[in-house]
Every structure is written in C-alpha cells, then in structure tokens.
Fold this protein.
Amino acid sequence: MSGADTDSRAGPAGYEQVLKKTDPSIASFEEEAATPLKRLQHFLHAHPTAIPAIVLVLAILLFSIIAGQRFLHPFNFSLVLQQVTIIGIVGVAQTLIVLTAGIDLSVGAIMVLSSVVMGKFAIDVGLPVPLAFASGLVVGTLCGIVNGLLVTRLRLPPFIVTLGTWSIFFALNLWYSGSESIRSQDIAEGAAFLQFTGTPFVLGQARITIGSILMLALVFLFWYILNWTSFGRHVYAIGDDPEAAKLAGIRTNGVLLSVYAIAGLICAIAGWALIGRIGSVSPQAGYTANLDSITAVVIGGTSLFGGRGSIIGTLIGALIVGVFRNGLALSGVDVLWQEFAVGFLIIAAVAIDQWLRRVSA
C-alpha cells in the first residue's frame, strides 16, 4: 500500500487510519421501489387463480359476441358443466398429486378400472349394488396406494411410476372386462344406483346432473382441506421443499402415501360419475382423462413444480377448456382448431408459471 494512500505515521495507530480519497457516504441497503410489472408479478404469484379467472371471463365475453345467443343460453352453460364433470373430478385428484411436485398419468386408467369393477360385480357377479359400488372405491384406493408405495418406498419418479401403472391398470381393465361393455339397459335393470350421477334436474332453462353437483362438492371439500387443515398445509410444504418439510417434522412419506391413496379414491368416484355420464360401463371410455386432467390443472394455474396452486383453479381450468371447445364448435370451427386452441392455452399457462416462479427465485 503506497504512502500516498495512507497516513505516513508509524505504529499501530497509523494502520487504523482509513484510506484517503475514499467515499465517506454510508452504504444503503434499501430496496428499490417495485415497478408496476413487478407488483403485478407478485400479485399473480400470490393469487394463482387470478389469471385463469380472467381468461374464463374473457372467453365467455368473446364467444358471446362470436356465437351470440346460442352460447349465452342457460342450457348451453349447463351443457358445458356436464361436459367437464369427469375431467373436473379427476382434476381434483391430479391437483393433489401435482401440488406435491408429482404427476399421475394413471388417473384415467384407475377411473375406468373402478367403473368396470362396479359394473361387473353388480351385473355379472350379482353382488348387492352397495357392495359392488364399495368394491370399486376400494379398487381405486388400492391403485392409488400402489402408486404411493412405489414413489415413497422405492423412491421412483412419479412420472415413471404412473406411466408404468397406467399401462398395468389399463391392461387389467381390458382383461377383466374382456373388452366388452355393459349395456345401459342392463345397468338400469340390475344396478340403477350406478347411473344415479347421470340423473338430471331442471333449474329454469338449465339442466344440471347429480354428477355436476358431485364435482362441485368435491372441489369445495378439498379446497377447504387444502386451505384450512394441517394436512393441506403439509401438502403445500412438501411440494414447495420436501427437505425443509421433513426438517420441520412433517412425515413426508406418510403424507405422500395418503395423497396418492386419496387420489385413487377420487378417481374411483369419477368412475361412478362416468357410468352416470355415458349410461353404460365401457372399458374404452375416459382413455384420455389423464392428459385432460393435467390440462385442467396447468391451465388452472397450479405449478407443475409443486407448492403453488388451487383446486378452484383446476375447476376454472376445466371450464376454460369446456368453454373454448363449446364456443368454437358453436362458431363452426373445425375440431382440429379446437385442439390447437387448447394446446396453445397449455403452453401459455406453463410460460406464465415460469415467469411467476422468478418471483421466488
């Protein structure tokens, strides 16, 4: 250090002198004022359902202009609700998995397998309908437990696990059903309860089914569980940071196993709703439910990286897809471009999620 920059006095006191020609101002650590874009980013990160809700409102306004009165008719709105009922229920199960930073590709196969077990046990085996119905619920729950055990005990990636079990459950479904459907007339005669979710009732000019009411009930039930119970807080914590959750005393494996088991049960309930929706038991029905449920979850604002999202958002995401497909169909747009629009929505939703994640980065 040169003498020009320091005091020339010898001894310890000389070395305690500060450098000359330096800036004497005090360092400031105050944060810069947030820009409007930054404030918007923080708001949307804290309220993940805001964007899907805005998109849904804009879609309704757009198609009310393009398709006119046919789109705005109460019966058409009730039809959209019926069309998204199955995906809405399966979407509840998918949301629980995605919130833990996982994904379940087997939800559709579990749903159909459960519906086949209900129908076969009631019609072919001759079990009492309540017992056949309960057996389907048990099968769905056991399928979820199998997924959960593979993820928690063997520590396999959820994507790989459920990709494998999707093929296994679907093969079991085709084997047990013999690739044969059970006619709606046979179900109506021997197990009418299985078609109960398809029972409609009229509200003015709208036609609502029990299945749609069941979907809304499940959405609000799990909205309450995720937001107002310790189990729900644990689900979010595991999805956000599993290691921190474990250090906080959360039994992560137990919670994950419970999530997969509950998801399997919900898929079995969706199987019951599927029978009511189509009237029969078909081993080929609901084949795309896994991808459709992921679509509803992603468009609904739930992060594929876990820890952020909402069941209400999934319902809105399912309604967005239903509104777009219905509105485009009424506008005379080819099915090809309907799928194009849904694909664009998925990419846009993931891009927005990546942008919002930078808030916590």
Observations:
- The first strand starts at residue 200 and ends at 203.
- The chain has one domain: 50-356.
